[in-house]
Amino acid sequence: MTTAKQSDKDRVVIFDTTLRDGEQCPGATMTFEEKLEVAELLDTMGVDIIEAGFPIASDGDFEAVREIARRTKNAVVCGLSRAAHKDIDRCAEAIKPARRGRIHTFLSTSPVHMKYKLQMEPDAVHDMVISQVTRARNHTDDVEWSSEDGTRTEFDFLCKCVESAIKAGATTINIPDTVGYSVPEEYFDLFKRVRENVPNSDKAVFSVHCHDDLGMAVANSMAGVRAGARQIECTINGIGERAGNAALEEVVMAMKVRNDKLPFWNNIDTTMLTRASKVVSAATSFPVQYNKAIVGRNAFAHESGIHQDGMLKNAQTYEIMLPETVGVKQTSLVMGKHSGRHAFIHKLEEMGYKLAQNQLEDAFVRFKALADRKKDIYDEDIEALVDQEIAQSHDKIHLVSMSVVAGTRGPQRATMKLDVEGKIMIAEEEGNGPVDAVFNCIKALVPHTAKLELYQVHAVTAGTDAQAEVSVRLSQDGRSVTSRASDPDTLVASAQAYLGALNKIVMKKQRDAGGDMPKAAAGH
Ligand code: KIV
Ligand code: ZN
Fold first, then answer.
1. In the chain, where the domains are located
2. Ligand 1 atom 2: the closest Cα is on which residue?
3. Which residues line ligand 1 (CB under 6 A)?
4. What CATH class does 9-283 carry?
5. What is the rounded CA–CA span in Å between residue 521 and residue 354?
6. Among 9-23, 206-220, 352-366, 412-426, whose mean pLDDT is lowest?
7. Model pTM?
């Protein structure tokens, strides 16, 4: 929360669309359980509106929106829908259990979208705006209308649609920069002119929704707010279609740190920003770029001698905000093999984790095993270990053990023991290298048709005993899932990451069809 004098007219509503625009981007699919975890965190950190999904898109999306609507305590829960009445009705059904629900319905208004995408004349589009908003208002008083591709829409037509949407009952008007084409001065002018030209503009809250194709999503969002918009649509880590959306942590911290130039406030508990970034990164398996503003691992790191010297004399020399403000801890409890359960639990609490008792016990066992193999345990190691524990707690397929023969004298061979829904199975396979041999074992034990789209390895911390973090992306039937795992042994991390992705596919299939697991091959 900003500390400057706060008046209602300067209050900016934070509308988070991590679970809709964010989840919609290639490879960021989250499981049902991951979506619930992210939604709970957003609600706790003070997000005003959670756009939980696009209910008509799939049964999975519908169920997730419905469950989030049921569980959310503070935020408004919003669902997205196109203009068709059946979309709107499905969305209304999904948000029904919410204490406060919103229908967000959109329609393209730019010449290029109307001509090629909708293949409709402007008059018909205008009629449809009235019809979609009216339909949504029959379900709820809280209706948002978006003019998709608003920044490339002809100005008079945009004003006409906005005026009609408000007349039909829209309480929020969003003018998105759908293709990330605008620049700040232009976006500022657009909001100023629309608000001045639309006679009933004072009856609705105006909203910004900016994509980052030219790297200007945050600057554009702030320009829109300076011109009178009072809702920002954004995502954690800036994930979203193509180059992503405006990052929540960036718009929130811009208003806090530069409140002299951006005198607006919001309700976000900024000390939760780092945790939120990590949870979303773990759920989507999208790594956060090291130099990412606010939440990147280098955002508060100083290596050059001159900077370190300045920092030692006074932190303000090279830091414009206190790391604690965004939830980065300065002091660190040193963890190692002598640390007990109590210290471990304390550490987890300090890092913002809340685990169930059984997850806590399993994480502690893993921590002890890691401490036996690795001298220094850093916060990043614990984070990787606990995130993996959380991710695996719903899995059907577990790695029991494996061994690999590698080296110059091939062929490389792997032996693997898996627990597949309680059944222990063993396979031994060769491969073109040790990783290939490991993945061949998994394919032999759990036959499947998913294709490996991405295999990426990096070290969690420095040093030759650092944990390897492996990301694997699998795709099947046009949808991809990603998973990350870490272990001091790169090959074990590779197997765990592959199994993590396979588990997501299996769970998704089971949820979609109420079907069985892919048949496991007969074990030896
Ligand atoms: O970018 C966009 O235009 C959208 C709309 C659906 C609001 O995401
Ligand atoms: Zn968007």
1. 9-283, 301-390, 398-513
2. 178
3. 21, 106, 146, 148, 174, 176, 178, 209, 211
4. alpha beta
5. 38
6. 352-366
7. 0.73
